Amino acid sequence: MSKILIVDDEDKIRDIIKKYATFDGYEVEEASGGLEAVSKCREKEYDIIILDIMMPDLDGFSVCKEIRKKTNTPVIMLSARGEEYDKIHGFEVGIDDYVVKPFSPKELMMRVAAILKRTSAPSTESIEVGGIKIDFSARIVYVDGVKTDLTPKEYDLLFYFAKNKGIALTREKLISNVWGYDFYGDDRTLDTHIKLLRKNLGKYNTYIVTLRGVGYRFEENTPEE
Amino acid sequence: MSKILIVDDEDKIRDIIKKYATFDGYEVEEASGGLEAVSKCREKEYDIIILDIMMPDLDGFSVCKEIRKKTNTPVIMLSARGEEYDKIHGFEVGIDDYVVKPFSPKELMMRVAAILKRTSAPSTESIEVGGIKIDFSARIVYVDGVKTDLTPKEYDLLFYFAKNKGIALTREKLISNVWGYDFYGDDRTLDTHIKLLRKNLGKYNTYIVTLRGVGYRFEENTPEE
DNA sequence: AATCGGTGTGATGAAGTTTTGAAAATTTTT
DNA sequence: AAAAATTTTCAAAACTTCATCACACCGATT
User: Fold this and answer.
1) What's the whole-model pTM score?
2) What is the DSSP letter of B103?
3) Which helix H or strand E contains B1, and what residues bound it?
4) What are the tens digits of pLDDT across the range B14-54?
5) Straight-line distance from CA A187 to C1' D26, in Å?
6) Mutating which of B73, B211, B218 best tests the A interface, going by the most A Cβ atoms within 10 A?
């Protein structure tokens, strides 16, 4: 789920946006000033930033410039002034959109969605764990750079493991997440697919660690030679 | 240089935008109505479309919907009305931005630049994948240099595949993008067209990879091993 | 060392998907 | 208006994947 950073010195404004954003399923963080926003962006990566222009400590343009030095996170500006100068200035700094106050929260969220759709689409999402690479957009798994064909269930299982790397996963959790909460099946079904997946992972089969009496954990470790 | 299509029934508006766009170095084409816009988009590919909502023959939303069936060209809407309804509706159809009339041409061009920068998909008249060449402007496909006649649906399908090379495409995605989001048809229709397209691609039929339980992926691979 | 409960494995038929051919329906062309 | 081309529907066939089972295996506990 996408993470949004809301930057505004007015609590009221932040609250309203937060309410709408949370409702739409976004993960929300707040900053009440420009300096706080910059430091937050240093620590963490956001998917989009909603940024007020007028703030007492550091104005939105400066914040945007600072952020752009490191990342390319999309920025939507909130402008209290409606002047063209501001708008253009905003674009020159490299903002992605702007909304003039007073604004409709619904419209703002529409713009957020539109930008996220644009920016997140072309990025080839992939995870790499040890010598295993999972390309989500192509739905291809590479083991040591070699394309490996997995069946749907094997892929889903690996996908879930990769997303929860290093976490102990109970059998129940694995089954309800990969098969579906309503799967009523044999005890050995999961084992069997673990077996198949391990076989396909070749020397990395040790990445799937058996937790006796609990379930499994996916982790990067040094395969035996 | 990027190609812009300006769609508005008012000559004055088109002229103004054209003046600014030409000054900024864009290649400009015009359409004075929705129908003309749609037919122009069928023949040629633009990098961005500036689209008025209110037009006598076919309104902007319908034009956008029609265009989106085939391509993913960015669209900026010109809205004479400032109502929120229009804005939201526009985004749902899949527009990239909108500007409310009366607008500042400078601002409009800023938005054009911002979107083009993001979508910076190099404008091409044709795509070549393996031994398959697709000439968009002529709507002709060559397999190993030999012109191959495809039916409209086959072409649309191949076109969508080629634009999304290497990406796993679900059946739903393929159907809603090639047939239209409102297609309510048989489950096996897609398969049948895949079959027909594969036949026409000759030895390159393996380029369309079946992803069991998911959909298909178009990729360049080495036929025969 | 024997037991016991949980885990790994190969085989197999069942279930689910895709492919295919052919015919019906629709649209376009003549 | 008929003919041709295209698209869609349908059902059987081919194919892949899956769940299940029986049994081997392993590791902890007694």
Assistant:
1) 0.58
2) -
3) none
4) 988 898 888 888 999 999 988 899 888 877 888 899 998 88
5) 17
6) B211
